[in-house]
């Protein structure tokens, strides 16, 4: 997955957490919001960095690779946080309830420490962009634009499901493809609109990561 794609996915995940899981996050919510804000600031520079990379700028390529690694680390941290909390909910005995009371704060603390380390890395990445002359591009100047696909609530969660068995994401996938490749979906040749970022947001478990992967695989193949 490209740096632009994974960053957009992670920004959506962090937005979901801050908006929908405030009580679950407790005191870590502010760190989630801070990480999202910093990542969105960096996100504005991705078009310029990708343009420099395509012209052979190795520094821009290294910068994008570093950012992609951090984005994947955030993605892993969010998933691990949810999995560990889910594991705490298993069992109904009194002892299980006691373990939950002890484990949940520890899990939040661990997640908070991971986010603190990640924020330090994002600070370094944000500062280094100035050394590489990477800057945000205004949409009106370069013709780029940013779109957000907001997924409606569904009854079915798409976690741990084979993509070939997924039903209900085809329409969302086609909507994104229409934005990415309007000249293809329209069936006639015309100059495509340049999209800087397309963000997919929605409640947890809707299949946002799966949807992004489906679009990416379609684009590659």
From TrEMBL:
Protein origin, superkingdom: Eukaryota
Domain Disease resistance N-terminal: 6-90
InterPro entries: P-loop_NTPase, RX-like_CC, Rx_N
SUPFAM superfamilies: P-loop containing nucleoside triphosphate hydrolases
CDD domains named among the record's database cross-references: RX-CC_like
Keywords in alphabetical order: Leucine-rich repeat, Nucleotide-binding, Plant defense, Repeat
A Gene Ontology molecular function term of the record: nucleotide binding
UniProt similarity note: Belongs to the disease resistance NB-LRR family.
Protein name in the entry: Disease resistance protein (CC-NBS-LRR class) family
Annotated organism of origin: Rhynchospora pubera
